Every structure is written in C-alpha cells, then in structure tokens.
Amino acid sequence: MSATLFESFKLNSTLTLSNKILMAPLTRCMADDELVPTQTMADYYARRADAGLIISEATIIRPDAQGYPNTPGLYTQAQIEGWKVVTAAVKEKGGKIFAQLWHTGRVAHSYFFPGGEVISASNLGLEGNLSRMRELTYQTPKAATTADISQLVEDYAIAAANAIEAGFDGVEIHGANGYLVDQFLHHSSNNRTDDYGQTPENMSRFALEVIDAISERIGSDRTAIRLSPGAYFNIEPDSRDRQVFDYLLSQLEPRNLAFIHLGIFDDSMEFDYLGGKASSYLRQHYNQTIVGVGSYTAETGSEAISNDKFDLLAIGRAFIANPDYVEKVRNGLELTEYEDGMLKELV
Ligand SMILES: Cc1cc2nc3c(=O)[nH]c(=O)nc-3n(C[C@H](O)[C@H](O)[C@H](O)COP(=O)(O)O)c2cc1C
To answer: What is the reported pTM?
Structure first.
C-alpha cells in the first residue's frame, strides 16, 4: 500500500534520494554545552540513515539565534568538527543529510547569550514562557536595523558554507513555525515601514536575500526552505499574510531550490485565508518539489503522494519512536507509538 514511498526520487541533477521518506527536523536539545554535536547524536542519526533524506534538528547560525537549551550550532570550528562525525556516520550507512539552519528571532532568550539582545523583524514580543525553560519569559525584541539584516544574511550564508564543510549534502532554511524568517513574513510580527515591511515584496525580501546568499555560496540545488503559510505556532494569523506567500512562492518558482518543505504539525488543519489546507495551498502556488508533513502515516502519506498532493513525505514523531521506521514500514511491521516521555533520551 505504501509502495510509492519506496521509489527513488531525483531532486535535481546532483541529488537523488533512495526513497521518498524524509526524517523531519526534530529538536532534541542534546548537544554539549558548547553546542557541539555528540557521538550519541551521530549514533542516533546513523540508525535512521535509511530515510531517503534526514533533515537535522534545527541548528543555530550564531549565538543570539538560541531559544532552547543545548541546541547544536554551525558557527564554531568545534561545532563543524562535531557535525563531521554525524555526517560521516550517516554516509557510512548510505544515507543523506541536510542541516536545518535556524535563527529563532523573538523566540530567543538572552539567558543563552548573556548581554546580547533578542532580535526580530519588529519590536513585537511574544507573551508567556519559553517552551523548554518554563522559568523564563519572552523578552521584547529589538527591531533589526538594515545593518543587522545584512549581517544576518551573511551569517546564514556562512553557516551554510560551514554545513557543506561539515559534510552535509545541503541545507534547509528554517523559514517556518514562527521563527526569525517567518517573523518577517507575517503581519502580526512585522510592522516595519522600510524596505522589509508592509507590502508582499518587502515582507518577502529577507527570506529571498537569505535564500540567494546561501544559493550563491553552496548552489540552489543544495538549498531548500521550510515555510508555514498557515500561522499556527509562535505567531498570530492575519488574512493579509496570504498575499505575502502568494508573492514569495512566485519568486521561489524560478530559483530551482532542492524543495519546499511545509512546516506544520497536523496537515488536516484548514486556514480560511489559504482556502483550505496549507499543503493544498502550496501545491496550487508552486510547481516544483514539495515535502508534505504533519500527522501522516505511511499509508495516508503514500496516498497523498499518489494523489499528487505533494512529492515527498516527512515523518517526525514516528521516527523518534522507531529508529527503524523505514524498515518497519517496508516490511509491514507494527510501529511503536510515540510518547513525549521518549524525548528524554536519544535512542
Ligand atoms: C520533539 C519535536 C521537535 C521538533 N523540532 C523541530 C525542528 O527542530 N525544526 C522544525 O522545523 N520542526 C520541528 N518539529 C516539527 C516536525 O518537524 C514535524 O513537522 C512535526 O512533528 C509533524 O510531523 P509528525 O506528525 O510526523 O510528527 C519538531 C517536532 C517535535 C515533536
């Protein structure tokens, strides 16, 4: 029933995946205190190397990108060396792996970078407590100046080059789930009045600058982006966001990216202003490779691919519970059910 998932897939002239199952990016907060990946992380990823492509857990591009404890980085030589161990372990098993590049923007906290400032599109803060450090409350961010924006773009490009040095096959820009890139794309977090605000062209500018700087450094064939056109996490929806994504997707079409990956937890959610599901909206506005995700099983995901809803399927929680997810699905074996308690240990 899930046979489609086991066909190979040519992403472009340089990358062919052995099957259509991606391991979704999954933050596990288990890098060491210098934010260097560990041997335990290498073993964890290597056990999942039979996915067509692994997307690494979100990996910060510089210190003020951090909003969760012990998330790995890609800006020091020690972090690059740590990732080399991970990518080598995945490659030894015949796998492929992209790094997910992350700046949390206003979801960051200066607890992680003492003396530094939290930065975002605008000075519009989140209410409440950090999700994995409940004792901390969100801070009001500083609106990035144009000089800050140029530096951020450069720092994304440097992190992408570092990812290639570390042995990754490419990068996925984390443009989803209410983090920095996404904060520019939604009206509820962007009220700028300069070249980065108010109109779809301006609100898309930062995302496009990041994409172009990275593509220039490592090639568009190795550059992908994750997007959340439907606001559902760390951000309030606004019906005007639709025009921003209409424009952004029209600009991504000719850029020959490796893929666009939807960012969502449950793809049965419908968004009024997108006219239904976020995956259907993406399909209508983008003709190239789309990775679907969000509470799919191998069966429902495979059916969605057969019905041309998207091209590749990312699996998150089931990959935490089942390191041998691909093997189990291939052989029709029963899967272990995911529970939040499993996050305490890297198995
Ligand atoms: C523990 C956990 C950590 C996650 N970390 C990330 C992350 O680092 N980057 C990201 O883009 N999404 C992250 N996600 C979202 C997943 O990539 C995925 O979109 C979500 O789990 C829905 O897929 P699923 O229903 O197959 O689990 C995370 C989800 C979970 C449960």
So the answer is: 0.98
